[in-house]
Amino acid sequence: MSKKRIIKVDALARVEGEGALYLRVKDNKIKDLKFRIYEPPRFFEALLQGRIYSDAPDITARICGICPMAYIMGASHAMEDSLGVQVTGALRDLRRLAYCGEWIESHVLHVFLLHAPDFLGYQDSIQLSKDHPEVVKKALNLKKIGNKIIEVIGGRAIHPVNLAVGGFHGAPKKKEVKGLAEGLKWGIETSRELALLVGSFTFPDYTYDYTSVSMRHADEYAITEGNIISSRGLDIPISEFENHFDEEHVAHSNALHGVMGDGSKPYLTGPIARYNNNFNQLSPLAKETAKAAGLEKTVNNPFKSIVVRMVETLYAFEEALRLVEAYETLEAAHIEITPKAGRGTGCTEAPRGICYHRYELDEEGRIETARIMPPTSQNQKQIERDLWGVVEGHLHLPDEDLKWVCEQAIRNYDPCISCATHFLKLTVDRD
Amino acid sequence: MTNKRPLILCVGNRLRRDDGFGPVVADELRSLEISDMDIEESWGEGTKLMQAWEGRSHVIIVDAAHSGTAEPGVFHYFNATETEIPRDFFRYTTHRFGVAEAVELARNLKALPPQVEIYAVEGEDFGNGEGLTLRVEQAVEGILKRLLPNYKPD
User: Fold this and answer.
1) What CATH number is given for B7-147 in this structure?
2) Residue A374 to residue A172: CA distance in whole angstroms
């Protein structure tokens, strides 16, 4: 008699947005597996058509409350590319500082309030906080410092309002920027301590030979600028992104799936991809902490993404402190811009991975076409591929335990479904 | 130092129909120019709520609920200082870390203000779109009467 199992997670918890997983198994073999995003599409690209170029950062920031900086900065870079403007020097440094704030607040929220409970056998962070209140308090303080950076530079933590095409609407006050330093010093020490803590977790046994895709900058661990590279030798300017990467529609998801341009191969973007491609550009302390937390120079177990996030958090604190200490009041908050027709592309490293923007402008600087490829869309196919492998390796588990490890595998990606709709019910069906 | 002025935290999303109840109440309270309490609007992300009530002695949270056990427009009241807040009760925000989680996490961390009250109106429609359904809109006046003993409608 054949044995059938169906596992369903109808509404995935501890992820951003609304998604589901359906799994059907017959005679101990996977027959169907679908990672489904059912949050409605939001049509941001259509909404942008006809708007003036300077509206794009503020409109696209509304795509996400967790990583607005990725949209503000990606849209700004694309507009500047189209309009022939380059933001350099102190303005560029201030943008990188603001982005460090976003990495800190987003990574820490995910690691301790959403993902760590999976590794420690807790249903959620509330149970975690009963047994480990000091850890949760420290994590909340780290996140608060990340938010504070964004507030000081961006005017507010959620959907900041002070960033613009060409720079900033106003120069942040020197006293307020310098006031961040003490918290950042505490953050370096504490994020190292918590990186070592998550490095001591037990990780499910699963590896994959990933095609890691990230940005790479000649002089620094890429966050806001660089070329697009892959671990298989690709190295292209951002303007060529669409020649090498594409999106495909699948019937079971409202989010497009990212694929390599030569067919249906998935690829990985996000913390592990960045770490694998750019490990040598991390700070000495971040490299030493990665090693002490048990990471090799290349990570192939996606469950170790939680450790990589904390290594990147430590690095972001170090970078933020360096930039704060170097900050002097800006002579001019932005570069003057004259609208003109053109086409521009921009890409930055959102906490979840590369976030690509492309716009075409008319002679008045109004948007004719827009294309945005958020990181969760790009990772979706790889998430399904990981789930397939994780399920194959854990079919001996009872349904509830199998469901647990599947959700944990999805959270490896800190998926931002709201961004991608353009996430999880799990159904396991065992025949 | 403790801030003794009551803080009214109005939670919700104006673009998800009845989830906009909190923000609509915030609009009404602001228009009344009340001088003896602070009013803040929030989209409901838990850690931001915890930051908002840091150092406060009295917090009143206004939100929408989907308990499924009451008629739309009916109020649920919790004295969060004394009662554990049920999950799967409020209209959830992204990352599923919202009002109930923030209150319970703060309780475990001994970071809950001494007095926390929650008024939640039972919603009818949490779909995409602006505007409250009729019975939830009618409940706005009800909450104002509860929050402001001297409130007199126009």
Assistant:
1) 3.40.50.1450
2) 29
